[in-house]
TrEMBL record:
Keywords: Heme, Iron, Metal-binding, Monooxygenase, Oxidoreductase. Its cofactor is heme. This is Cytochrome P450. SUPFAM superfamilies: Cytochrome P450 (SSF48264). The keyword Iron applies. Pfam families: p450 (PF00067). PROSITE patterns: CYTOCHROME_P450. It comes from Aureobasidium mustum.
Length: 419
């Protein structure tokens, strides 16, 4: 009892080796003792100390965390020395029971590298016929008369999208490799069922939310889609390949802006394995410290994203100014091919380095194809969100879990004929 009390109420305030770091302003300890700060909280911490490279804050049971904001520190932890910083104890305890102790999400070092190498190639060879994906989601979204399912054309977005089938034969690849144990194969399949099934649906839900509150952007996207995509019911339509997607700047801009402003993983953790000097902040971090990296905060930070003129070159002076990173505005990607990103680690919706999402390219293509099909067929307008069905789009309910998702987002989906 005394040890636990000391660890929670005394050590962080009086004996911590990190006491010299700027500390975030948080609620009283009794109001946050059993809560872990969300990505939205970390963005607020960064605003409180915007010039700081490191920010100390407190998580569940008042345990110390260090929020990284310096680009060099982030590259060191996620790229250059990625395997020197382990998966945090918090993540292992949270996800191992569900995904297995050999899951790609929780393993480290040689085990992670070996398993990733086996399945990595599969995502470069199994881009399924995209027309099947389109048929899955459009068929599941309508009744026999082609009308959206649900009263008043109102549909709960995530339930709607999860009816689509995302096909990739990871099991066959794992078995053929003969380099994985039965336990590793089981954990691998569980991981892809849990992560691949949900994440693309959530990314699409965020895109639908942003478009449902911006009819002008939605109309612009529909025009581009119908000019370039074969209609889903068109007989003999060619498969929708990645090279076709590259010719659709508005679709790419909408998807990139959605992944920037509403990243699926609002934050990720790393655990310091041995006393380490962070090169950017020039700070020694003691062994066992939990480091937090928040795409939610980074993607909104002026440290990482420019605004204003897209470039100083006279030839492009007439181009639209880049909007503030604190707002959702897909024109930033039309004004500047990097969206105003100042550096490589400015944009990391799928993570960075050897632990980045193995299915990044596959997931992004799925997102673009399905969003194009939905916007091509339906006019989407915001209805409500949350269990109380709040009709105000600016009060969208958000769940900050393993995946950051809108809660009970409901939109009206009205067919738009003429495609």
């Amino acid at each position: 009892f005394y040890a636990i009390t000391g660890a929670i109420f005394i050590q962080p305030f009086f004996f911590s080796s990190l006491h010299n770091l700027p500390t975030a302003t948080q609620k009283p300890i009794w109001a946050r003792l059993l809560k872990e700060p969300t990505g939205r909280d970390l963005a607020r911490f960064h605003e409180q100390a915007s010039t700081s490279q490191l920010i100390r804050y407190f998580g569940v049971l008042n345990s110390e965390r260090v929020l990284l904001m310096d680009p060099k520190d982030i590259k060191q932890v996620m790229d250059a020395e990625a395997y020197e910083f382990g998966r945090s104890y918090l993540i292992r305890r949270l996800l191992s029971p569900a995904l297995g102790k050999t899951s790609l999400v929780v393993t480290d070092g040689p085990d992670h590298m070996r398993c990733r190498k086996i399945v990595d190639a599969d995502f470069y060879t199994q881009h399924e016929n995209a027309r099947l994906l389109v048929e899955d989601v459009t068929t599941s979204s309508t009744d026999r008369d082609g009308q959206p399912l649900g009263p008043d054309n109102a549909i709960e977005v995530l339930k709607w999208l999860e009816r689509a089938t995302f096909r990739i034969n990871i099991l066959d690849t794992a078995i053929k490799s003969e380099d994985l144990s039965d336990e590793e194969i089981l954990d691998l399949c569980t991981t892809f069922l849990a992560t691949g099934y949900r994440t693309v649906s959530v990314a699409l839900a965020w895109a639908i939310y942003h478009l449902s509150t911006r009819p002008g952007v939605q109309a612009l996207l529909r025009t581009e889609v119908r000019a370039n995509f074969p209609a889903p019911d068109q007989s003999g339509a060619l498969p929708l390949a990645s090279d076709l997607l590259q010719k659709m700047p508005v679709l790419a801009a909408v998807c990139d802006e959605t992944l920037r402003f509403s990243p699926l993983a609002a934050l990720t953790y790393r655990e310091v394995r041995t006393d380490t000097l962070l090169s950017g902040s020039n700070q020694i971090i003691p062994e066992g410290t939990i480091l937090a990296i928040s795409p939610w905060a980074i993607h909104r930070s002026p440290i990482y994203w420019r605004s204003g003129d897209p470039t100083s070159e006279p030839s492009t002076a007439s181009r639209t100014a880049i909007p503030s990173p604190s707002t959702w505005d897909m024109t930033r990607w039309l004004s500047d091919k990097k969206g105003g990103a100042r550096m490589q680690c400015s944009f990391m919706p799928f993570g960075r380095g050897p632990r980045c999402c193995i299915a990044e390219a596959f997931a992004r293509d799925e997102m673009m194809i399905l969003l194009a099909a939905l916007v091509g067929i339906f006019d989407l307008s915001f209805h409500s969100s949350g269990r109380d069905h709040d009709p105000r789009p600016e009060e969208l309910r958000v769940s900050f879990g393993v995946v950051t998702e809108p809660v009970m987002l409901i939109v009206r989906a009205q067919p738009v004929f003429g495609w």
